[in-house]
Amino acid sequence: MFEEDQNSTAKMASSSSSSSSYNSPCAACKFLRRKCMPGCIFAPYFPPEEPQKFANVHKIFGASNVTKLLNELLPHQREDAVNSLAYEAEARVRDPVYGCVGAISYLQRQVQKLQKELDAANADLLRYACHEINSTTVAMQGIGVVPPPPPPPPPRPPHEQFGNYYHQPSSSDIMLQPSYPIIPWNVDMNVVNQRGGGDNNNNQGNM
Fold it and tell me: What is the reported pTM?
């Protein structure tokens, strides 16, 4: 009988503790001192073991503004929004003047510094590669090894390569050829006629 009473007491205690932990208000409702309803919009994102998270968000943004923001978002977007608000609120509490802008500026300076270091390292690698190429070329010339010649140009097409050498004269070319010798354009025709007539007269006189 005594053992049954102990078991029943233990069951009641465990059930009461589980119900109290299940029905414990979220950090937002506990901070605002109100009853946490089953459909509380803050409960999934502000658990009771993180009271400072909602305290910072409420101090910087206000509970009503956060409620309005969460109601305007889709359910799958609310967790990211709450995490962003919590980060910005914590940064604003630590640095009331700059807030998260100070952390962002610090990270941007770090990125610029690392980018400069990366550019300098790439420049050093390029100089080292050029130095190695020059050293190899000088060493090959010193031992009498000639670098390989550049590749020959691509061959010309057959119609361009042999067209001038295998041109056969056509009948039109033969017909257009003059039967008399071509006289240069700067020779006086009167002089040519006089010389030609004189030669004929001399030949006739001799005959």
Answer: 0.46
Q: 73 near 45, Cβ under 8 Å?
A: no
Residue 36's closest CA among 20, 24, 52? 24
pLDDT tens per residue, range 133-187: 877 776 666 676 655 666 777 776 665 555 454 455 555 444 445 544 555 555 5
Q: Which residues contact residue 183 at a Cβ distance below 8 angstroms, ignoring those fewer than 6 apart?
A: 189, 192
Distance CA 39, CA 194 (A): 130
The model's pLDDT over 58-72, given as tens digits with 9 standing for 90+, comes to 999 999 999 999 999
- What b/e sequence results for 6-38 when a residue is b if at least 16 CB atoms lie within 10 Å of its CB, and e otherwise? eeeeeeeeeeeeeeeeeeebbbbbbbeeeebee
Contact 86, 57 (CB under 8 A): yes
Long-range interactions of 43-52: CB distance < 8 A, separation 24+: 44/78, 44/79, 45/70, 45/78, 45/79, 45/82, 46/82, 48/24, 51/27
Strands (E) located in 87-141: none
Q: Which residues contact 103 (CB under 8 A, 6 or more apart)?
A: 91
